[in-house]
Structures are given as structure tokens and as C-alpha cells.
Amino acid sequence: MAENPRPPATGYPVPPSGAYTNGYPPAVSNTAYTYAAPQYSNYQYHGQLQQQYPRRSAFMRYFLVVVIAFFIITGCIFFIVWLVFRPRIPEFSVQSVKVSNFSVVDTMHVSGTWQVGLLLVNPNKKMKISYGTINAELYYNSEFITLTLIPPLDQDTRNQTALDALFSADNAYVQPRAVSDLNSDRAKGNVAFQIKGEARIRFSSGWWRVRRRELRFWCVDLAVGLSSSSNGTVNLTDGKRNCKVSI
């Protein structure tokens, strides 16, 4: 038999499965942990928030206490001032009524001129009164006839102010039933009118001023000697009339 011309291969045998790659076992660490590694926690962060919230809530409580105390003290001051000055409602009265050129055009229209003398009285010893524009309306029973405006004015303490209110109607529309009642009153010789008015007023005394209020007055039973045959000027028959006033 002939010999194999190639010599057998020499070298390291194939390492078995599971053997170390470099032929040596891995180095063993001498470090040993006797406790578990600490875990991260938000405890400290929440603690800071819990410290901030009480400070914030305490500040809000103090702030609310200061605001409430301020309003209570201010209210007490205004109440005491109100008791000291004690504003009284002004007084209104009708001193005179003159009707001229009155006529009933047909069953639904009325014409005429009404000159009304008003007296405004400020009964307060320490309070002045400022009036805005006075809006005054003339009625027969509950039927509106016409209106007029009285300019603003100021009234001093313990003052009486006379005003003239001029009402004019030119073919003013009135309900037929009201015209029928008016003609019936004229046949009796007396016709009663009413005046309703309102204005914004303010009480004041030096630096102290009360907020503006809505004043209303109502003057009723303003009877004038207006007969069917009268064509001239007629006057209030029973003297002056006090008006109802409210704020």
C-alpha cells in the first residue's frame, strides 16, 4: 500500500460545548453587596411641595381676613356717618295749576297748556341734595297726556325751591273712554289731573356723598275749575296739594 503523501494535521482539539472561550474561567469579583441597591424615590420632592402648599394657603387665609376686616370696618364707618347725618327724603307739593286753551278736538284728542307751580323742600339740617333732570308726566286718571323736563338743580340745607313746570299738548291722543269721562267731569265743573315724576338725586355733606338714588313723586287730585263753557285760564280749586315721595 502506498503511503499518504500529506502528514496528519496537528493543533488543539475543538473545545467541547459550554467550554470557556479563552480556555480559562472568568475572573471572580471580590466585591460583595451586603444590602440591596437604593431605589430612587420622589419623597423629598413631595416634601418640598407639602412645605410650599401650607405657606401659600396661610397667605391666602391672611389675605382674606384682611379683605373681610376692611369691608367690615368700612361698612361700620358708613353706617355711623349715616346715623349722624340721617338723610331725610325731600318734600314735593303742588302750589298752583293753571290750565289754558283747553279743548277736546274729537273723541280721541286733547289740546291745552298746563302751568304747574311746584315747591321742593329739603328738610335736612346737614345734607344738601343734588337733582338730575326731573322727568314729569301729566295724566288724566291713568291716561297719559303729555310730559315735560325740568333742568337739574342743587338744593342747600333747609331750603325751599319753587319750580315752574310747563306742560303742553297739541292733539294728544287719549283713549275714547277717557275722553268720555273727561267730558263728564267738565259738565260737573271740575277736572282732576295727576302728575308723576322721577329724578336721580344725591345727598352730600362736605366730603361725604351718598350714591345716587332714584326719586319718584306722585301728585294726585289736582282739580281745576274746568267746565264745558270755560275757554280762558282756570286755577287749582282747593289750594296746594302735597305729593307722595319715595326713594
What is the 3D shape? elongated
Q: Secondary-structure element sequence?
A: HEEEEEEEHEEEEEE
Class computed from helices, strands and strand pairing: alpha+beta
Which fold does the CATH topology of the largest domain refer to? Answer: Immunoglobulin-like
Q: What is the count of structural domains?
A: 2
- Any idea what the radius of gyration is? 50 Å
Structural features, described:
InterPro entries: LEA_2, NDR1-like. The chain crosses the membrane at residues 62-85. Keywords: Membrane, Transmembrane, Transmembrane helix. By secondary structure, this protein is α+β, with helices and mostly antiparallel strands. It folds into 2 domains: 47-85; 91-246, Immunoglobulin-like (Sandwich), CATH 2.60.40. The chain is 23% helix and 41% strand. It has helices at 43-85, 176-188; strands at 91-104, 109-122, 128-131, 134-140, 143-150, 153-155, 159-173, 191-205, 208-209, 213-224, 234-235, 241-242, 244-246. The strands form 2 sheets. Strands 3, 4, 5, 6, 8, 9, 10 and 13 form an 8-stranded antiparallel sheet that branches. Strands 1, 2, 7, 11 and 12 form a 5-stranded antiparallel sheet that branches. It is elongated, with a radius of gyration of 50 Å. The relative contact order is 0.15. The mean pLDDT is 83.
What's the layout of helices and strands?
Blueprint (H helix, E strand, L loop, with lengths): L42 H43 L5 E14 L4 E14 L5 E4 L2 E7 L2 E8 L2 E3 L3 E15 L2 H13 L2 E15 L2 E2 L3 E12 L9 E2 L5 E2 L1 E3 L1
Antiparallel strand pairs: 1-2, 1-11, 1-12, 2-7, 3-6, 3-8, 4-5, 4-8, 8-9, 8-10, 10-13
